[in-house]
Amino acid sequence: MFNGSRKYSPLPSSPSSSRASSSSSSSSSSSSSLPAAPRRSPRALQRHSSLLSQYSSLLESYTEGEIRQLISALVERYSQAMNSGGHELPLFARPGSRRKRARARHKPCALKELEVSVSELGLGYESDETVLFRYCSGTCEAAVRSYDLSLKSMRSRRRIKKEKVRARPCCRPLAYDDDVSFLDAYNRYYTVNELSAKECGCV
């Protein structure tokens, strides 16, 4: 592999040229010798073609959906830069951040929990009491069946147009936890069933 800076050694000279150079140096010892002309660096065209090949191989590793997301993100960043007057925005995300996003997208379906107030549940109750809300999160790529693949093909061929169908399994609760009881801000007692997930799966 090459280092960042290249060093070029002078070309070997023939015996006749060495004799000629020795005679010329002895006859004109008082005159200063001219430095050897350095080799030309590779043309900028080669560097551009290498850069283009790197970006081409990078884009080939993306799926069609990821390329669409990338283009939409680039357009959004460009419009934000034009509106804010910025000029320096990265065109492509760093490989490390892309790997992190890939790992985040492909986490398996699992049960998670979060401590929230009853008012934050969005069920219309006003209460400062806190409950443990368990929910399902993750992807179901490993649970794709022939049904999902065929349904996706029918949608892409526009054989199924108007129906709202899901062409891949979703991480959803398979069972729910016990009922949750609490007092609201007016000291009224309520019980909510099927609030928190107990078991998660791909359905």
Tertiary shape:
extended
Helix content: 25-40%
pLDDT average, as an integer? 74
The CATH superfamily name of one domain is Cystine-knot cytokines
Most strands sheet = 2 strands, antiparallel
Radius of gyration: 34 Å
* Terminal-residue CA separation: 52 Å
Organism: Rostratula benghalensis
GO molecular function: glial cell-derived neurotrophic factor receptor binding; growth factor activity; receptor tyrosine kinase binding
Family: Belongs to the TGF-beta family. GDNF subfamily.
InterPro entries: Cystine-knot_cytokine, GDNF_fam, TGF-b_C
List the defining traits of the structure above.
two-stranded antiparallel ribbon; Cystine Knot Cytokines, subunit B; growth factor; growth factor activity; extended; disordered N terminus; 203 residues; 18% strand; 5 helices; single chain; alpha+beta
Structural write-up:
Residues 9-39 have a biased composition (Low complexity). One of its GO terms (molecular function) is receptor tyrosine kinase binding. It is found in: Secreted. Residues 98-203 form the TGF-beta family profile domain. It holds the Pfam family TGF_beta. By secondary structure, this protein is an alpha+beta fold. It has a domain at 110-142 and 169-202: Cystine Knot Cytokines, subunit B, CATH 2.10.90.10. The protein has five helices and six strands. The protein has helices spanning 15-27, 44-60, 64-84, 95-105, 146-156, and strands spanning 110-117, 130-137, 171-176, 180-183, 189-192, 197-202. The strands form three sheets. Strands 1-2 form a two-stranded antiparallel ribbon. Strands 3-6 form a two-stranded antiparallel ribbon. A two-stranded antiparallel ribbon has the order 4-5. A hairpin with a 5-residue loop joins strand 4 (180-183) and strand 5 (189-192). It is extended. The model is unreliable at 1-32 (pLDDT under 50).
